[in-house]
Design goal:
Elements (H helix, E strand, L loop, with lengths): L1 E3 L3 H9 L4 H11 L3 E5 L1 H11 L8 H14 L1 E2 L18 H14 L1
Parallel strand pairs: 1-2, 2-3
């Protein structure tokens, strides 16, 4: 299983483009159990603040469904500060890259 923290921009893109790659990621979180999501209360607060911005004009139903998908499928963590520097090149940068990684992972299983 792939472990991930979903960036707020992915959620915004999923809500704006229901047939795009970000929406596919959210759907995988909700229905397939292929991705283990981790979140903190700070992340949920950020999700709520960004999704409720007037410029996006997302209904409260859309906002709730997206956040509920993360909270129901995810694991709540309480992160602590770290001084470990992680290399950027090993991290997924786009939803498309994430879906490709997931496909490669499934093929290897």
């Amino acid at each position: 299983m792939i472990r991930a923290v979903i960036d707020t921009n992915v959620l915004v893109s999923a809500a704006r483009t229901p047939n795009g790659n970000p929406a596919k990621i959210v759907e995988m979180v909700r229905s397939m159990g292929k991705i283990q999501i981790y979140y903190s209360m700070d992340i949920v607060t950020e999700y709520r603040n960004v999704l409720s911005r007037p410029k996006f004009d997302f209904s409260t139903d859309i906002q709730s469904r997206i956040i509920d998908a993360i909270v129901c499928a995810g694991i709540l963590i309480s992160p602590s500060a770290s001084t470990i520097q992680l290399p950027d090149e090993d991290f997924v940068k786009t939803p498309s890259q994430f879906l490709n990684m997931l496909e490669s992972y499934e093929t290897a299983q």
